[in-house]
Automatic annotation (TrEMBL), chain B:
It comes from Paracoccus zhejiangensis. It comes from the Bacteria. It is a multi-pass membrane protein. Residues 16-231 form the MacB-like periplasmic core domain. Residues 262-371 form the ABC3 transporter permease C-terminal domain. It is found in: Cell membrane. Its main location: membrane. GO terms for cellular component: plasma membrane. Keywords: Cell membrane, Membrane, Plasmid, Transmembrane, Transmembrane helix, Transport. This is ABC transporter permease. The chain crosses the membrane at residues 12-36, 260-282, 303-329, 341-363.
């Protein structure tokens, strides 16, 4: 796999809830391809289907129709068990949350190494990798601190370190800058872009934050479950 | 990385408080088990103390514990002469109240013949009888000490020895006196009208009576044969030691035993519900974190492990605290609290099962959590 390869393919994906008169179409025939190194934003008003699309790419929600391929592997083709999808998420996808969602009972370093522990890395190697990532994101000095004592920016950088720990090639971010001030939001976006380039990963972010639109390669607009332009 | 331990350490104070609360509940459970055992042990203590093989009692009664029994004191000579009998001793039992040091003691007076079966097996402090009158050996729970003098009936007795764990099924501590003193005490406690009639010589000479005669058999002697032989005497009946114990448990303490047993069952059910609620609440508070773990790819076994391990640590800590507390306070109970290692082992097994079953509720809630709930702030 080299830079520019397609990491995410979404083809004719639809998602509906309910049936008959109560049927709600959250997504309708969405096509999307994202390549390594790309940083794209999913935009749209509430209820437009952004989160549904993110959940489908993140293997949390199965589509009602259509095809999804992640890093060359077709998923939701009937062969995947729930446990397989979790393993796929662990190996290939990193998540960055709006409210960082760090585990409050673990230190910053443990919040990062927990992913590696789950992936089966030896503990010492996992700790070293966590420390390396925290240092890289300039929060190494806060490695032994619990999330409650981290600033918003520090917590978000630890969350980014956690998302990158197992070297995933697909990073999904849900409002990654919502909890940050303008300056820190720009810094986080610069950081994500740098990571996408260096690690040949793609970043798909749901955002409403207009101040960071210029940091994305593409802006994907959704309305009523359809892609309106990109 | 052990997430359960990390989470406990994070909220250590709260977890310790929860364990302490559960520990108090376990203390009550253990106390009830101990009281239950104590009731049985106390009831059997008085039967087991003489180390008898056969109890000879009044015909038509199940004496002397389940029913009143009165037989002539010289029955002892007849029993002692029977083949296979090594030793026989007459024995009396009566409950009296006596004033001592400004308080009223309720005492279970056992009269026996020194040198014959029926007396205490072991004297913990002091000595046995040195004189045939007005000496007394008391259970420690009476509060009496060596040298104390106490009035029983018309006579004053001196405490010369102390024993332990000698009491009747009602928990009244026992005191041992000589048979002669016990018979005199019986007469002294007769109703006044009966005493006046006896003083006038009405009703003829009254033969001394005892509650039972106990027999210790020679090795290899047949208990069943001896009891059958005694039963042939119309005014006597005989019970083996095992029959006497079963009778006491079945008739005298059975209702109390069942009452405590039922209460214990209710208490264990309440404990199970409390443990289940604590674990469920602990899990519900972590749903967002569980959703995050699921989202980043944690397998179900990691999440189940987190909940079950915490449940087991909670149960084990609660049980440990409960055991420590009950061992500290058990001697302050007015009645005996008897705890055997077996009881702790059985309760550990029950708590283990309760914790695993109780964590099932939490696991069920955790398994239902949609990882998508971790998204969206």
């Amino acid at each position: 796999m080299t830079r520019g390869d397609v990491l995410v393919t979404v083809q004719g994906v639809a998602k509906h809830y309910g049936s008959g008169e109560t049927r709600v179409d959250a997504l309708r025939a969405v096509d999307l391809q994202v390549r390594a190194g790309e940083v794209i934003a999913l935009l749209g008003p509430s209820g437009s289907g952004k989160t549904t699309l993110l959940n489908i790419i993140g293997c949390i929600l199965a589509p009602s129709a259509g095809r999804v391929e992640l890093d060359g592997d077709p998923v939701f083709d009937g062969k995947w068990l729930r446990s397989d999808l979790r393993r796929l998420r662990l190996d290939k996808i990193g998540f960055i949350f709006q409210a960082h969602n760090l585990l409050p009972f673990l230190t910053a370093e443990e919040n990062v190494s927990v992913v590696l522990d789950l992936a089966g890395w030896p503990a010492a190697k996992g700790r070293a990798r966590a420390r390396e990532l925290l240092d890289y994101l300039e929060v190494g000095h806060r490695a032994s601190v619990k999330p409650a004592l981290l600033s918003g920016g520090e917590a978000q950088r630890v969350a980014i370190a956690r998302a990158l720990a197992n070297r995933p090639r697909i990073i999904l971010a849900d409002e990654p800058t919502a909890a940050l001030d303008s300056g820190r939001a720009q810094l986080v976006m610069d950081l994500l872009r740098k990571l996408a380039t260096e690690q040949e990963a793609c970043i798909i972010a749901v955002t409403h934050d207009e101040k960071i639109f210029d940091r994305f390669d593409r802006l994907i607009h959704l309305r009523d479950g359809r892609l309106v332009d990109s | 990385m052990n997430l359960a331990i990390r989470d406990i350490r994070h909220g250590l104070f709260r977890f310790v408080l929860t364990c302490f609360g559960l520990g108090l509940l376990m203390t009550v459970v253990l106390a009830m088990i101990g009281i239950y055992n104590g009731l049985v042990a106390d009831a059997l203590a008085v039967v087991k103390a003489p180390a008898a093989d056969v109890w000879v009692v009044e015909a038509g009664t199940q004496g002397p514990f389940a029913e009143a029994s009165s037989i002539p004191a010289d029955t002892r000579d007849a029993v002692a002469r029977m083949p296979g009998v090594a030793e026989a001793g007459a024995i009396t039992f009566q409950t009296i109240e006596a004033a001592h040091a400004g308080r009223t003691l309720r005492l279970y007076v056992i009269g026996f013949e020194p040198g014959r079966p029926g007396g205490p097996q072991r004297i913990a402090e002091g000595r046995g009888f040195g004189s045939s009158h007005f000496e007394l050996i008391a259970d420690r729970k009476t509060g009496l000490v060596i040298g104390d003098r106490i009035r029983l009936g018309r006579d004053r007795f001196t405490v010369v020895g102390l024993v332990e764990n000698a009491m009747n099924s009602g928990g009244d501590p026992a005191v041992y006196v000589t048979l002669a003193d016990a018979i005199a005490l019986q007469t002294a406690l007769d109703p006044a009208a009966a005493r006046v009639q006896a003083a006038r010589g009405a009703g003829g000479a009254r033969l001394p009576t005892v509650a039972a005669v106990i027999a210790v058999l020679e090795p290899g002697a047949d208990v069943a044969l001896l009891t059958a032989t005694v039963r042939q005497w119309k005014h006597l009946s005989a019970l083996s030691q095992a029959e006497q114990e079963n009778l006491l448990l079945a008739s005298v303490v059975d209702r109390a035993r069942r009452q405590i047993g039922l209460f214990l069952a209710i208490l264990l059910s309440v404990s199970a519900v409390v443990i289940a609620l604590i674990i469920y609440t602990m899990t519900m508070e972590k749903l967002k974190q569980i959703a995050t773990l699921k989202l980043i790819g944690a397998p179900d076994r990691t999440i189940i492990g987190l909940i079950v391990q915490q449940a087991l640590i909670l149960g084990a800590s609660g049980l440990g605290i409960g055991l420590a507390l009950i061992l500290l306070v058990k001697d302050n109970f007015p009645r005996r609290v008897v705890l055997e290692p077996f009881n702790a082992l059985v309760l550990t097994g029950i708590i283990l099962v309760v914790c695993i079953v109780a964590s099932g509720l939490g696991v069920r809630a955790a398994m239902k959590v949609d990882p998508a709930t971790a998204l969206g702030g």
